[in-house]
Amino acid sequence: MTGLQRPFVVLILGLMLLYNLAPFYWVISSSLKPPLEVIDFPATLWPRQATVEAYAKIWQQEGFPIYFLNSLITSSGTALISSLVGVFAAYGFSRFAFRGKLALMAILLTSQMLPGVLLVGPYFELLSRAGLYDTRLGLVLALSTITLPFSVWMLKGYIDTIPPEIDQAAMLDGASRLQVLTKVILPNVMPGLVATVTFAFLLAWGDVLWALCLIQDQARQPMTLGVLKMFGQFRVEWAQIMAATLVATAIPSCLYVLLQRYLVQGFAGSAVKD
């Protein structure tokens, strides 16, 4: 990079950083403002008198802690099922040759191209017939089917980088296929597994459409619906909405920061094949 190019690149990166961080700054600033200052015009960039009243109110509201707990249960369940089923399916696609293998892989890839809004109706009918409508388990299963194709593709690409000779050597030592998967393959694909778990967790955590259509009881609704309900017909408590939004983004943000190294390794490893 030449001396003339460096300032231009730094300027572009600085503008991109400002563009991405400005909304978060506004959310934090608005959540610390009193109710009347939030709707002041012209708006203040920072509260004249910062207060955490909005945070106290959302936790005191009936239902918000339940929304938070439901989001944790739903997201963790989706991540667990998606990664557990995904790693077995990915190992099978990577190591075994069987009739219809390419067709199944094509179907998995094609399923990712379908808009979620087209699938809500069929899932509603299936869950209703199975007695799983308006249950956390039904929502977890529905979200798992959305994240599973990505998990399979991600983990298959990672397992493909591991030579099959390692499997054969382990089986010559007396290991079964399951032992090969759990004791040989999984330790080597851990970055990819962490990436798939994180992807499934974040997708389920931020879901609105599926929860809105498949969950009716307030006691089972996730946080995204709880924030949505804060928009009243005649009044909108913007400070509380911003505080709830910040609380809702805290878990995914911390998760991403803690697992960033594994995420980069996982996405990079899944794209490399021998």
How are the secondary structure elements laid out?
Blueprint: H1 5-31, H2 35-38, H3 53-60, H4 64-95, H5 101-111, H6 116-130, H7 136-159, H8 164-172, H9 177-188, H10 190-205, H11 209-214, H12 223-228, H13 238-258, H14 260-270
Helix pairs in contact: 1-13, 3-13, 4-7, 4-10, 5-7, 7-10, 7-14, 8-9, 10-14
List keywords for this structure.
single chain; 274 residues; mainly alpha; MetI-like fold; 0% strand; disordered C terminus; membrane; cell membrane
C-alpha Rg (nearest Å): 23 Å
CATH class: Mainly Alpha
Low-confidence stretches: 270-274
Helix content: over 70%
- The end-to-end distance, rounded to whole angstroms, is 32 Å
Percent strand equals under 5%
If you consult CATH, what is the topology?
Answer: MetI-like fold
Q: Describe the biggest sheet?
A: none
CATH 4th-level superfamily: MetI-like
> What overall form do the CA principal axes indicate?
globular
Number of domains: 1
Subcellular location: Cell membrane
Protein name: ABC transmembrane type-1 domain-containing protein
Keywords: Cell membrane, Membrane, Transmembrane, Transmembrane helix, Transport
Membrane topology: Multi-pass membrane protein
